[in-house]
Amino acid sequence: MRFIDEIRVSFTRSEGVFRLMTINIAIFLLISIAKLVFFLAGSGSMFLDNVVMHLALRSYIPAILTQPWSLFTYMFVHVNFIHILFNMLILFWTGKIFCEYLGSSRVVVVYVLGAIAGGIFYMLAYNIFPAFSNSITASYLIGASAGVLAILVAIATYVPNFTIHLLFLVR
Known about the structure:
Distance between the termini: 51 Å
CATH topology: Rhomboid-like fold
Largest sheet: 2 strands, antiparallel
Helix content: 55-70%
Strand content: under 5%
Number of domains: 1
């Protein structure tokens, strides 16, 4: 129990970027470990796929009405390593800059509101544009991309002339 208590204390004392990254990575690890267990047990991962679908944001309006929590939960669900890796790298880099200028408490608010706005835009796009009509019942949204992009846009708007030195790119 000492290890869990240390994690709990460090989580409550940490800044918003660390909390967001911890939640995203923990959910990714839980899903990945469950996938591995289902694979090693020789059983199909239909149950796990069903769980992910209950957490994902669906584009189909009747599905949204039966799963309203998905507008919030989708922003923490990742099933692909590269997807979570790049989301967390961008969250870390832009989140540190954001916290430096606007404070740690605001980063969580911008992340959540940006992800909710991204989810609403996703649902509207799939239900308004005819190009998506063939795939509306099967489409779903997962990942932190909308929340991370909201933090990136917020800090780019607040400090537009901030210089970032990218690794491995030489002028």
